[in-house]
Specification:
- Helix 1 packs parallel to helix 3 and helix 2 packs antiparallel against helix 3.
- Helix content is about 55%, strand content about 10%.
- It contains 14 helices and 6 strands.
- It is globular, with a radius of gyration of 19 Å.
- It has 2 domains: about 60 residues, Helicase, Ruva Protein, domain 3, CATH 1.10.8; about 220 residues, Uncharacterised protein PF01937, DUF89, domain 3 (Rossmann fold, 3-Layer(aba) Sandwich), CATH 3.40.50.10880.
Length: about 300
């Protein structure tokens, strides 16, 4: 997905939020803002928003000397998610449709996105759970379940710390032995890394790899050779979050995107309302299937 004009103010706000987490020195804030504005003025709008965010957050880390500005926030939301996990697991277990409930709760975890909401609170997470369980959900869960059953090798692209605890509910429905989870190769915003996977027990449930990249999405040309091989060889790819949607929706392979549409740009591109729960098959797959039907 390309970068839209409406993304530019978000980059600026995100930059200021991030640098203010690491220092109160307004001189540093000003230097960062000026550098980010220069970078934005030169950006290629044909690239995805995560490509630009990657450049901005490298600038932030370099200027502040902080390798992981969101580290404390990630630990906080990992703990919160682990605390409420037993009740969420019980809800899935007693559900009449465990797969749908697990998908809904995985989407609830997608609210833990500090790139969109820097002032995220525990209350926001609990509200996200309530909303995800009750909101309308126009998704073909049966078709998703069929694809899961037919896949022997599933690659699950994780999004944020804390959220990866919610993902475990869905991973268990997929059958953990079939799943490999990919986290980010190094810190970027509050995206999950291998440290978060270990902290939350995800590494005890499934095989976890990192993608070798520090982009808040999955930019394939930035990823490691091992990750790209696994991506190509997977029978099914499940991608969490807006960043993965922005970077992979036009890739020519079978992907199911699971996310909450948290901004107007994403909602418009998907064709839904802001706040909608989304389980969406990749556009390229749908187009290929349409071509196939047309040729019959």
């Amino acid at each position: 997905m390309k970068t839209f004009f409406d993304c530019i103010p978000c980059f600026v706000h995100q930059s200021l939020d991030s640098v203010r987490m690491t220092t109160t020195d307004e001189a540093v804030h000003e230097r960062l803002l000026r550098e980010v504005l220069r970078t934005l003025a030169e950006m290629d709008m044909r690239q995805s928003p995560p490509a630009m965010a990657k450049r901005i957050h490298r600038i932030i880390r370099e200027m502040t000397g902080q390798a992981d500005p969101y580290h404390d926030a990630k630990e906080r939301f990992n703990r919160l998610a682990m605390d409420i996990y037993p009740e969420l697991a019980a809800q899935v277990e007693r559900s009449a449709n465990p797969l749908e409930t697990a998908v809904r709760l995985a989407i609830a975890g997608n609210v833990i996105d500090m790139g969109v909401n820097h002032n995220l609170s525990d209350e926001h997470v609990h509200e996200g759970i309530d909303h995800a369980l009750d909101a309308p959900f126009e998704a073909d869960i049966a078709a998703f379940g069929e694809e899961i059953s037919n896949a022997a090798n599933i690659l699950y692209l994780a999004d944020n710390a804390g959220e990866i605890v919610f993902d475990q509910l869905l991973i268990k429905q997929l059958l953990a032995e079939k799943v490999t989870v990919a986290v980010k190769g190094s810190p970027i915003i509050n995206d999950a890394t291998m440290e978060d996977a270990e902290t939350t027990g995800l590494t005890k449930l499934v095989k976890v790899i990192d993608n070798g990249s520090d982009a808040p999405g999955t930019i394939l040309e930035d990823c490691s050779d091992d990750f790209r091989r696994r991506f190509d060889e997977a029978d099914l790819v499940i991608a969490k979050g807006q960043g993965n949607y922005e970077t992979l929706n036009e890739v020519g392979r079978d992907i199911f995107f699971i996310l909450k549409a948290k901004c107007p740009v994403i909602a418009r591109d998907i064709g839904c309302h802001v706040g909608s729960l989304v389980l969406r098959r990749s556009r390229s797959t749908i187009m290929k299937e349409g071509d196939s039907h047309a040729k019959r």
